[in-house]
Amino acid sequence: MPPLTRARTAGSPRRAVALALTCLLAATLAPSLPAGPAAAVQVAHDRVVSANPADITPRALDGTISSIVTAGDTVIVAGTFTQVQTADGLLTLPRTRVFSFNHRTGAIDTRFAPVVDGAVNALALAPDGTSVFLGGAFSRVNGSAARNLARVRLSDGTLVESFRTPAMDGQVFDLELARGRLYVAGDWRNIAGVYRPGLAALHPDTGALHPSLRVTIAGARRNAQLGVRKIDVSADGSRLVMIGSFAKVSGAVRHQLAVLDLTRWPAQVSKWATGRYEPYCIDIFGSYVRDIDISPDGRYFVVVSVGGAEYPKLCDAAARFELRTSGLQLQPTWVDYTGGDALLSVGVTGEAVYVGGHQRWFNNPYGVENAGAGTVARKGIAALDPLNGLPLSWNPGHDRGVGVRELVGTGEGLYVGSDTNNTGGEYHPRLAFFPLLGGAAVPPVNAGVLPGDVHLVGATGNGAPGTDVRARYFTGSSTGSGRTVGGMGVNWRYARGAVMLNGQLYTGWSDGKLYARSFSGSSVGPRRAVNLYRGRFGGEVAKLTGLAYDGGRFYYTISGQRALYYRYFTRESEIVGAERFTATGNTGAVDWTQVSGMFASGGNLYYASKANGRLFRVGLANGRVSGTPTAVSGPGIDGVDWRAKGLFLRAN
Question: Which residues of 75-100 are buried (b: 16+ CB within 10 A; e: fewer)?
């Protein structure tokens, strides 16, 4: 089997001709078809894909790729293109809006060539695994009437006559096969003679309306036609998430985003709602949501949008929402903004949230068509941390154009469909594949645990000089013996907070920089400055009085300020979030202006008091402090003075 990714050098013409002939014969003689259809959600990955795209993927020479599905080793691609070409450039074939090829060889299937007279927006593999549904804005397939929806055989592209396209007065935007039904989304008002705008379920064998889905949408957004743009169904088939131009679903207020409970008969609007997509963005974008994807485990989904730089509205942004919850004013877990560039596609694989579009940047809430404070460059395509939405280090780059329109995770990597020619620094017009082979897993964050040694950086209590590091065993409620580690060639008096993650000791410094260095327990490596991308955190570092890490967040206090703050932080890319959030202000029990070092462990925040040297414990989870602080150690308790420039747990 040829490798999915080869060296980036061109082969000889003779070798290229041989490859083209081999691919042509392989496609003609041995097409590979599966026993059944693929799942509606992305395949879960155990790593981030390689940034080096495969060299054998065919090309689309014009138009746009809008949809990709797989059937075993067969990949079906749809959009608005009219010509395709083998990766070596030696074989060009006419293909009107849909074609297929072999994933392992790159061979274009010469027998699958349906003729479609309009755009194909969506694909879904049929239950038999040997045919595929086409949805879009067309009137005829292979010369036969099939308005906006058809089913064709993968073996030869002919229509499956037993499937009768229902009459509809609008186009199809999306398709999903789940629970033995074909869910169809679009902008029609009537389908099969029934008023059921935007969303319907069909019998996949016959095309007849399925009685399990009878919801109706209403309330088109200003400057937008009523309709459902995208849908996704959870892997267990229990929930359908829908986005589009609507304000109500079966009478329930649901602005642009709704969740249906498919376990009910008929399906019901669930008690899941958010008001975050009710406000308008730039006026030309009445409805600005563009794509949605549910995580492989069904715990959450991510929505991407267009709409302009309208922070803090969810315009030109990716937002994660938890699916296994309920409420009428639910808020996103995180939001990442581009600063004014459109996002058109999202693919969630568990290890990463891949997003694509027209964007130049992420972590850019303060930019307005420019790179604001903290901005990280990610042109055309990016991988975000599922925990907090910050960019991972994966950064192949992609020509912007209108943007990446499709992201599909398979068992071997990630397919990308767009309207441009270059990705990963290579020529891959409109279609590219990033393999898992050569990719890297994101290591779990180790922030240290109790019981263990708590290190006091620049300890000042009990007459300590404030220049060295000391350690004391601590269980979370009682202390053990202490020891002096020493300065290790560093004057720790200038430290401003400390956190150790995965073998790296992060310390704020009096010069306003965040430094990282290795720490063995008795020695430190050379320091290096973490890139803060001109973010506002850089203006706070020199004034930190405490720094802790928990759940993808840096928690911190600032000299003279009466609050506990946090910013997102991704260890893999070492990116600090541009936005600052307030976890809590001063309460009757906590005066955050008196913090003198802090760390987090086991769902608790521990902080030293500058006033009396005691160590306090308070509950901490998901950006919120809870409960009443308890003094667990200190003068008057066990005689230990915890005051320091920073506190941290050793974490290798």
Answer: bbbbbbbeebbbbbebbebebbbbbb
**CA distance linking residue 449 with residue 628, whole number of Å:** 22
* Distance separating alpha carbons of residues 133 and 291, to the nearest angstrom: 20
Q: Which runs of E-coded beta strand occur in 288-399?
A: 289-294, 300-305, 317-322, 334-337, 343-348, 353-357, 361-362, 376-377, 381-384
pLDDT, position 652? 87
β-bridge pairing 544-550 and 199-202: unpaired
Give me the CATH topology for the region 452-649: Hemopexin (2.110.10)
**Per-residue pLDDT, 464:** 74
Residue among 611, 524, 409, 194 nearest 184 (CA): 194
- Please give the structure tokens belonging to residue 482: 């202490």
Q: In the chain, which segments carry CATH 2.110.10?
A: 452-649
The pLDDT score that the predictor gives to residue 523 is: 96
What residues does CATH 2.130.10.10 cover in the chain? 13-435
Give residue 527's pLDDT: 97
Q: Which token pair is 214?
A: 């009878």
What's the gap between Cα 562 and its chain centre? 34
Phi, psi of 228 (to 5 degrees): -110, 125
Q: Structure tokens of 246?
A: 């609507």
13-435 topology per CATH = Methylamine Dehydrogenase; Chain H (2.130.10)
Sheet hosting strand 406-410, strand order edge to edge: 406-410, 413-417, 431-435
Does this model's pTM top 0.85? My answer is: yes
pLDDT of residue 589: 79
- Interior CA angle at 277 toward 264 and 188, to 5°? 60
Cα(329)–Cα(155) distance, integer angstroms: 48
- Among 228, 195, 67, 87, smallest CA distance to 135 is for 67
Instruction: Specify the pLDDT at position 476.
Output: 95
What HEC string does 77-141 produce?
EEECCCEEECCCCCCEEECCCEEEEECCCCCECCCCCCCECCEEEEEEECCCCCEEEEEEECCEE
For the chain, which ranges sit under pLDDT 70? Answer: 1-41, 585-588
CA–CA distance, 371 with 362 (Å, rounded to integer): 9
- What integer pLDDT is reported at residue 11 of this predicted model? 35
